């Protein structure tokens, strides 16, 4: 069950694993590395301060929507979260500021996306975990094509994934997105990329070139520096992995014990 650590800064946990961290007095503070990397994408897809239309699949405590509302005032954001109990808890304990521009929807991510208008979002952020695993129906070519339809020309899709060596899931997701989008980039810590530990990897996909140089500068300056891979390096990582279709989709792998526990 969700739980909130009642302090000035708020840590939301789900079944004992950290899920979201929010500081209501400092919405631009991002505690978790994967959230920082998703924010790097949001920071680099348009000129600083320009408002964006963003869809967030997976809501948590609305950490990234709060960040974007602070860094790009006037942005319009839709947040889709299937856990109604979580939404009620967040609305009660961590209410949004009036005029935030954030609309929250209690719905399945793919079902909601299938009803969204064409060309209606500049960025689509996917951070959906059922427990500690990405649901199977959010891993397929059909899902990626739906995301592409909702994005405007030049829009960006970015997702938080989790895997470890030999990266069967991550490789299949890169192959799936490469089936739909022309440009891909991957942000992850070197230890994860080298297969030394299970961890998060943020993927970015678009039809327009991804600003890899800007992403790399930001990722390298993080407290836990990450690398940005693209081009030949990603093609080698994908190797012989095949795109995932609805009929053969499976969830992301179960993290090993303690992979994302609270220290």
Determine and state the CATH class.
Alpha Beta
Task: Give the distance, in angstroms, between the N- and C-terminal Cα atoms.
Answer: 19 Å
User: Low-confidence stretches at least 5 residues in length (pLDDT < 50)?
Assistant: none
Shape: globular
Order of helices and strands: EEEHEHEHEHEHEHEHEHEH
Radius of gyration: 17 Å
Q: Helical amount among residues, as a percent range?
A: 25-40%
- Given the structure, what is the number of helices? 9
CATH superfamily: Vaccinia Virus protein VP39
- The fraction of residues in strands falls at 25-35%
Q: Which sheet architecture does the biggest sheet show?
A: 8 strands, mixed
Task: Give a description of the structure.
Helix content is 30%, strand content 27%. The chain is of the alpha/beta class. It has a single domain (26-248), classed as Vaccinia Virus protein VP39 (Rossmann fold, 3-Layer(aba) Sandwich), CATH 3.40.50.150. It has an 8-stranded mixed sheet with strand order 6-5-4-7-8-10-9-11, with helices on both faces. Helix 5 links the parallel strand 7 (121-126) and strand 8 (151-163). Helix 1 (33-44) packs parallel to helix 2 (63-71) and helix 1 (33-44) packs antiparallel against helix 8. The longest helix has 12 residues, at 33-44. The protein starts with a strand and ends in a 25-residue tail after the last helix.
């Amino acid at each position: 069950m969700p739980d909130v650590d009642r302090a000035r800064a708020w840590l939301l946990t789900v079944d004992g694993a950290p899920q979201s961290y929010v500081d209501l007095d400092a919405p631009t503070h991002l505690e978790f590395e994967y959230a920082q990397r998703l924010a790097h994408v949001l920071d680099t897809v348009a000129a600083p301060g320009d408002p964006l239309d963003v869809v967030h699949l997976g809501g948590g405590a609305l950490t990234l929507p709060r960040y974007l509302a602070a860094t790009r005032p006037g942005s319009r954001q839709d947040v889709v979260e299937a856990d109604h109990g979580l939404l009620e808890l967040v609305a009660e304990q961590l209410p949004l500021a009036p005029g935030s521009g954030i609309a929250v929807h209690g719905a399945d991510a793919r079902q909601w996306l299938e009803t969204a208008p064409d060309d209606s979002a500049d960025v689509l952020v996917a951070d959906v975990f059922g427990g500690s695993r990405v649901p199977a129906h959010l891993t397929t070519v059909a899902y990626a094509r739906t995301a592409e339809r909702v994005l405007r020309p030049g829009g960006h899709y970015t997702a938080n994934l989790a895997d470890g060596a030999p990266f069967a899931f991550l490789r299949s997701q890169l192959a799936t997105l490469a089936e739909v989008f022309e440009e891909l980039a991957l942000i992850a810590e070197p230890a994860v990329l080298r297969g030394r530990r299970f961890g998060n990897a943020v993927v970015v996909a678009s039809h327009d070139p991804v600003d890899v140089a800007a992403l790399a500068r930001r990722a390298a300056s993080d407290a836990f520096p990450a690398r940005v891979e693209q081009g030949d390096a990603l093609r080698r990582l994908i190797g012989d992995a095949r795109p995932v279709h609805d009929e053969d989709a499976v969830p992301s792998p179960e993290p090993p014990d303690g992979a994302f526990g609270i220290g």
